[in-house]
Design brief:
This protein is an alpha/beta fold. The chain has seven helices and 13 strands. The strands form two sheets. Strands 7, 8, 9, 10, 11, 12 and 13 form a seven-stranded parallel beta sheet that branches.
């Protein structure tokens, strides 16, 4: 398997690509690839190419595009994860794992008990986490990262286009919910903060025709619940 690299500097008409900064460092000084070697390039938008290294210096690498790689047809079902951000590196770890799982979109939730605001200053680190996860798992399209919004606004935006699955200790088994859904039905997974959703927030979800989903008897951390439910949904 060839090494994978992300670039937003692809010129399809000229048949060339450029790697700079972190990706160039990875190619040149970590993988230690040489002129003439082939790699896989992806643009974070769902496209991928085979490329050959044609020129390097200490901080950049130029590549020739050999051919575009055929990518599997994207599912019409969109899976959105709306989650109250956990603290510190636990949120970065969550982003990494749901990227690997194939979740399409992530919405940081602001609920009554939310204590973390991901903030614009953390986006560069989270983007690098997404890039690394895509390189590792073979994903060519980035996880779409939305701005933080309230639970009420999130429900209003998605309840007509997505079936809502809310992690809750008194919920039903996921398999019992899925037998009632169309195979192409888009889904929004909702996971609250450490203290859980309030009764009022659960009532709002039920009014939006949400299904409550049990994750078993254990009390899970936010990121564990989010990853567990995401994985279960992706395997259905």
């Amino acid at each position: 398997m060839t090494s994978r690299f992300y670039t937003n500097s692809i010129d399809v008409n000229q048949g060339t690509a450029l790697l700079e900064e972190g990706e160039a460092h990875h190619l040149l000084h970590v993988m230690r690839l040489k002129m003439g070697e082939e790699v896989t390039l992806f643009d974070g938008k769902g496209n991928a190419w085979r490329g050959r290294i044609t020129k390097t210096d200490r901080r950049r690498a130029e590549l020739e595009l050999l051919d575009q790689i055929t990518v599997a047809t994207k599912s019409s079902r969109e899976i959105v994860l709306a989650v109250a951000p956990p603290k510190g590196d636990r949120f970065r770890w969550l982003v990494e794992k749901v990227t690997e799982l194939g979740i399409n979109r992530l919405i940081p939730l602001k609920t009554e008990r939310t204590v973390v605001d991901p903030g614009a200053g953390k986006m560069d680190k989270l983007k690098q986490t997404m890039i690394s996860a895509c390189k590792q798992c073979g994903r060519n399209e980035f996880l779409a990262f939305e701005s933080q919004r309230s639970w009420e606004v999130c429900l209003e935006e998605y309840h007509q286009t997505h079936h809502l699955l809310i992690a809750h200790p008194n919920g039903a088994e996921l398999r019992d919910i899925f037998v009632k859904l169309e195979p192409s039905q888009s889904l929004l997974i909702g996971v609250g903060p450490e203290g859980g959703f309030t009764e009022e927030e659960i009532d709002q979800a039920l009014q939006a025709q949400a299904s409550l989903v049990s994750l078993g008897d254990s009390i899970l951390r936010t990121e564990t619940a989010a990853i567990s439910l995401s994985a279960a949904v992706m395997l259905q």
